[in-house]
Write a structure and sequence with these properties.
- By secondary structure, the protein is mainly beta.
- It has a single domain (2-214), classed as Beta Barrel (Porin), CATH 2.40.160.
- Helix content is 8%, strand content 69%.
- It has 1 helix and 12 strands.
- The chain has one helix at 2-18; strands spanning 21-36, 42-44, 46-58, 61-78, 81-83, 86-88, 91-112, 116-138, 159-171, 174-183, 188-194, 197-214.
- It has an 8-stranded antiparallel beta barrel with strand order 1-3-4-7-8-9-10-12. Strands 5-6 form a two-stranded antiparallel sheet.
Length: 217
């Protein structure tokens, strides 16, 4: 906790030295997906909302740390699974992860008009997973949901690192950002067993976000 306070204090001091500092809340829409390294399992995007706050330190070149709360995940769809002589076609796992997201990016305001400007930025992001929810479903409901769990909660890491790239537009006190977060390390990694065959999988979280912020000062 002391290190976090020291980190943000140093950022605030840097902002004062840079000569400009902005702070404000932000909300956004996110579309996330857990990519996977095998073609035998398909998955779909999940859409959610995020909210948080940002601090922008600097003018033409700036540093922007954020703290966001968001939900990410994916729907994994397995092929026909045979369990105790019962064919399940198909089986789905709806994975939902609640996370505290801490991005830090460096940006460049390359077009500066009187009432608006355009920026590009990039950086790194730490995702701290605070809650893992896995719902299992088979279409014909022939067995209980707890009898087939290819991916379990213990297969999901508690921390993931991502890189971040984006472009933003500021109009008066409002800031609109379009961001892409790509996974650096695997979020889901382990052995998945279905049809009595072990499949080694690795999965990274990729998130697309459109956010709207309000510069309070």
């Amino acid at each position: 906790m002391k290190k976090i306070i020291l980190f943000f204090t140093s950022l605030l001091i840097s902002g004062i030295m840079f000569g400009q500092i902005h702070f404000g809340p932000q909300i956004g829409y996110s579309a996330s997906n857990l990519s996977i390294n095998t073609s035998e399992i398909t998955n779909n995007l999940k859409s959610n909302f995020m909210f948080g706050a940002f601090v922008r330190l600097g003018d033409k070149i700036y540093v922007q740390p954020e703290v966001n709360w968001l939900t990410q995940g994916s729907v994994f769809r397995y092929p026909t699974v045979s369990l105790n002589g019962i064919n399940l076609s198909p089986v789905e796992q709806n994975i939902q992860l609640r996370a505290i997201q801490i991005p830090v990016n460096v940006g460049w305001r390359f077009i500066d008009l009187k009432v608006a400007n355009i920026r590009v930025f990039g950086g790194v992001t730490a995702n701290i997973i605070t809650k893992k929810t896995i719902n299992n479903k088979d279409d014909n409901n022939s067995i209980g949901k707890d009898l087939i769990t290819p991916i379990k909660q213990e297969d999901i890491r508690n921390m993931q690192w991502q890189y971040q790239l984006g472009v933003g537009v500021d109009v008066m006190m409002f800031t609109l950002d379009v961001k892409y977060y790509g996974g650096i390390n695997n979020l889901v990694k382990g052995d998945v067993i279905y049809n009595n065959v072990t499949h080694i999988i690795s999965s990274k979280s990729n998130v697309f976000v459109v956010s709207l912020g309000w510069k309070v000062f």
